[in-house]
Amino acid sequence: MLKTPISVCLNSKAQHLGNSSNFRWKKSRKYRMAHPPVLSLALPSDTGRVLSIQSHTVQGYVGNKSAVFPLQLLGYDVDPINSVQFSNHTGYPTFKGQVLNGDQLWDLIAGLEANDLLFYTHLLTGYIGSVSFLNTILKVVEKLRSINPKLTYVCDPVMGDDGKLYVPQELVSVYREKVIPVASMLTPNQFEAEQLTGLRIASEHDGREACNVLHAAGPLKVVITSVNMDGNLLLIGSHKNQEGQPPAQFKISIPKIPAYFTGTGDLMTALLLGWSNKYPDNLERAAELAVSSVQALLQRTLDDYKRSGFDCQSSSLEIRLIQSHDDIRNPEVKFKAERYN
């Protein structure tokens, strides 16, 4: 079989992309002769290329296992780095595995850079368990933005819930002082937003004010993903479109499902990244799509557990992610945003 020389492929690719492409192909002669093009760089998708640094479990869907598949369904190339690799999530009686440290994370980044593979449109981070690893994340943000100044950094500041921290206390100040200023979008829950702002969120007004405080620190988009208000759940979103103008703020009422699920926060943040990139000036629409997907998935999960005869309130439930692929790709919007005046 006659094979086309690599150099011809690259020349054709360069002509195809032209000068308008943001994805600049490195012109090292040695590189061009030694390697075929990485197509996610040479022929990028219309959506983008995401570096996702989160936890990983062999069984179940949390962290990257909960985020990568949905983003791929929405058309993104996703490169996962697993901050931990555990047999299962930590809610089980036992778990085994390994934890990546900051030096090991940086080794992976250096390896990508050495091969001209470090162009990303988005960075997504979730659970991070140590200050040293979080400080390395900051180095990663700086490195990625030196290559693509337009990088969007979506940060889920996973620190705790229901009034309890499950990371070391010193991570709160690192998030507050160093991470928030470089984030493009922030997706805390109610407890995390309180930790980051020092405000108690006891009303919708408090939630909106917390968003304003976080905007002032850096991010243009803030979504408090779950606010418990008088027994009801709200998502409160805020998008600062123009400097000097008040942000556009909205809420989505979310029905409570009588069960506890793992991985839903990681899924929600991934979907907010995916849909907000498709609707860059309409965070309300992105949030409607994300919430509708998650609620459909949770209802399917609950129904399937009940059908198997399981007591859904006896322990946390593993989400039915793969079975909900249609609800992720093409959600029926049943939960609408209400804009605040």
Uncertain spans:
1-33
Count, helices: 12
* Element pattern in H and E: HHHEHEEHEHEEEHEHHEEEEHHEHE
* Mean pLDDT score: 88
Instruction: Give me the oligomer status.
Output: single chain
Question: Would you tell me the structural class of the helices and strands?
Answer: alpha/beta
Q: How far is it from the N-terminal to the C-terminal residue, by CA?
A: 67 Å
Helix content: 40-55%
Main sheet specs: 10 strands, mixed
Query: How large a portion of the residues is in β-strands, by DSSP E?
Result: 15-25%
Strand order of the largest sheet: 3-2-1-4-5-8-9-10-11-14
Rg measurement, Å: 21 Å
Helices and strands in order:
Elements: H1 6-17, H2 29-34, H3 39-42, E1 49-57, H4 64-73, E2 77-86, E3 97-99, H5 102-114, E4 122-125, H6 131-147, E5 152-155, E6 160-161, E7 164-165, H7 170-179, E8 185-186, H8 190-197, H9 204-217, E9 221-229, E10 232-239, E11 248-254, E12 261-262, H10 264-278, H11 283-307, E13 317-318, H12 325-329, E14 338-339
Parallel strand pairs: 1-2, 1-4, 4-5, 5-8, 8-9, 12-13
Antiparallel strand pairs: 2-3, 6-7, 9-10, 10-11, 11-14
Please describe what this structure looks like.
Helices cover 41% and strands 19% of the residues. It is built from 12 helices and 14 strands. The chain has helices spanning 6-17, 29-34, 39-42, 64-73, 102-114, 131-147, 170-179, 190-197, 204-217, 264-278, 283-307, 325-329; strands at 49-57, 77-86, 97-99, 122-125, 152-155, 160-161, 164-165, 185-186, 221-229, 232-239, 248-254, 261-262, 317-318, 338-339. The chain has a 10-stranded mixed beta sheet, sandwiched between helices. A two-stranded antiparallel ribbon has the order 6-7. The protein has a two-stranded parallel sheet with strand order 12-13. A hairpin with a 2-residue loop joins strand 6 and strand 7 (164-165). Helix 4 (64-73) packs parallel to helix 10 (264-278), helix 6 (131-147) runs parallel beside helix 7 (170-179) and helix 8 crosses helix 9. 40% of the residues are buried.
